[in-house]
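Limitations

Structures in this collection are predictions, not experimental determinations, and the ligand pose is part of the prediction. Treat each record accordingly. The example that follows, with 77R as the small molecule, is included so readers can see exactly what is and is not provided: the inputs are given verbatim, and the output is the predicted complex.
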Amino acid sequence: TQTTRPQRILAAVQKNATRGDPRSVVKAIDQFCRHKEWAMNVGDEKGCILDSVVTEVNPATVLELGTYCGYSTVRIASLLPSHAKLITLEFDPGNAAIARQVIAWAGLADKIQLVEGASGDWIPKLKEKFGIETFDLVFLDHWKDRYLPDTKLMEECGLLRKGSILLADNVICPGTPDYLEYIRNSPRYKSQYFKSHLEYTKAEDGLEKSVFLG
Ligand SMILES: O=C(NCCCCCn1ccnc1)c1cc(-c2ccc(F)cc2)cc(O)c1O
Ligand SMILES: [Mg+2]
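Predicted complex:
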């Protein structure tokens, strides 16, 4: 019976990465996706931009929308201060099951809370469920047509504070036109575009970093 792409990514991690070594997990996935099989991880080039933003913000609370196989989850969590918490939402149960194992292999399970379900359902429940006040950093990497509605939902639910950072993947490819239009024209945000490339390709893509002004 045929394996799934996430299953093949997990196998590559278990074969090539060292347990408890997040950077080796990131490297193993990048090697596999660059040389064996493309997959929609944020990747190494945009990943370096992600790393610099995480390091600059040094967040105590992080929300990731779109876990996939846990590549960016591991990448972010490996840079967090010891008591920081990362909540990651994944809609697809198959992806979530793989991501849990990738996160465990990296030894980061105690920093990460993986929640299965739809972001639109979960965002209004995060405060009560996880005792979260606000998020210092949000990484948007899920369905591209959900970036805008979920951003508005986070505003309405009081999950953003003055200075909260939103970092959005794929604003060029596949593209998030309605989100870009909103966030770049809203007086409540200050945005900056980081030009890069679609993971493991030469196609243009980039990350949009936006500061919520309150
Ligand atoms: O669709 C993407 N991600 C969302 C996956 C489903 C999220 C499910 N979910 C999780 C939580 N709530 C909902 C994505 C796609 C591409 C891409 C680019 C070019 C191409 F030709 C094909 C694909 C590149 C990415 O970097 C991406 O992130
Ligand atoms: Mg992406």
